[in-house]
Amino acid sequence: MSYLTDTAQALGVMKQAQENYIDGRIIGGEDADIIDFPYQLSLGYFSSHSCGASIISADWVLTAAHCVYGRSASILAVRAGSSIRNSGGTLHYFEKVIIHQDYDDDYLANDIAVIKASAEALSQSKVLRKVEVAVVDDETCHRELANYTFYPSMICAGVEQGGKDACMGDSGGPMVAEGKLYGVVSWGPEKCAEPRQPEGVHQDKSL
Fold this sequence. Notes:
Elements: H1 3-20, E1 30-31, E2 40-45, E3 48-55, E4 60-63, H2 65-68, E5 76-80, E6 90-99, E7 113-117, E8 129-130, E9 134-136, H3 138-144, E10 154-158, E11 174-177, E12 180-187, E13 200-204
């Protein structure tokens, strides 16, 4: 069996897990207050949580392309201003989805998208969680995740001993350092935060 076929199957398993287990959460982190992360959103379909997202302007949201691929803007909504993903804050709806022109749904290359809010502008005003991980150099990440395909726009992050990571349900959420948005949660190994494969993969927002 070819390497590319192996990779496609592995990513297929991961994507199926994301669809079946959207309650997956940050691993090894702690509860967080939306006051400290006012740009964080809960993105879902018909107001049911599926992915994370970030406010980048008064009427634009940044998320992972696989969170909105093949879905109409009319069924998408985000909850803003709440530490609880399914209550509180305010719901906002959308009129347009723009996916990166080179997004590859098989290999999650260029896994980034923006969504335009409808008339009402976004306000930056189970529990939001956060986790601190380190950026992992490309050589190490590619060695430890050797069965996966990588693209230059992908950023690996994790901790060597495992136990801390983003997981299913966190896709599209922000990768932030010192208050600056660097990317969005994209994908990772089938099992999150494993010691031998501790890295999660994020998409560079500068695409």
